[in-house]
Design a protein that fits this description.
single chain; 178 residues; mainly alpha; 7 helices; 66% helix; globular
């Protein structure tokens, strides 16, 4: 373990990094939205997953930080203070994305099942609306829990950092090379 770890990254830097990374990851979807024919959803989901994994694997695990994290001046380390391994980086991003998404996906599934042909009118609609509300509340709860953990932890570790054993630090400036 490193003797002296750099200070944890502030919330504002992490938030800025996430916005930049989200914009970069969603940019390739724009041409798909402009196509005259909607591409098959499974193809889009599959390509998105591959792009997502490649983006974080290459940028964080191989280069030390994603483009958003580089702009924000932060890096992801493992619990011992070293650059997080490729597997840990991918798991971290999957956990970050999956926790709120699972609640919403479950709500979507219940909604689709209850509104299928042959379902009982108003009762099905009530169950579907309840599922959506519960899914949204569960997703928001995960986000609030993540923020609460981050603000109360001295190392500013969010829920996904705790689960996979990472921490986000303020990246010390590197000396200029001639």
């Amino acid at each position: 373990m490193r003797e002296v770890l750099p200070p944890p990254a502030p919330f504002s830097a992490r938030f800025f990094a996430r916005i930049v990374d989200t914009a970069v990851l969603n940019a390739p979807a724009l041409p798909l939205a402009l196509l005259p024919v909607e591409p098959p959803r499974l193809v889009v989901i599959g390509l998105s997953m591959v792009l997502f994994a490649a983006y974080f694997w290459v940028s964080q695990a191989r280069l030390g930080a994603s483009p958003g994290k580089r702009l924000a001046g932060v890096r992801v380390l493992d619990r011992d203070g070293y650059t997080a391994s490729p597997a840990r980086v991918i798991c971290r991003e999957l956990v970050f994305s999956a926790l709120p998404s699972v609640a919403m996906a479950a709500a979507g599934f219940v909604t689709v099942v209850t509104l299928m042909p042959g379902a009982d009118g108003f009762e099905s609609l009530g169950v579907a609306l309840l599922a959506i509300v519960v899914g949204v509340l569960a997703s928001i709860s995960v986000c609030i829990l993540t923020l609460a953990l981050m603000w109360t932890d001295p190392c500013r570790r969010a829920l996904h950092d705790r689960i996979v054993g990472t921490r986000v630090i303020k990246d010390p400036p590197r000396p200029a090379t001639a």
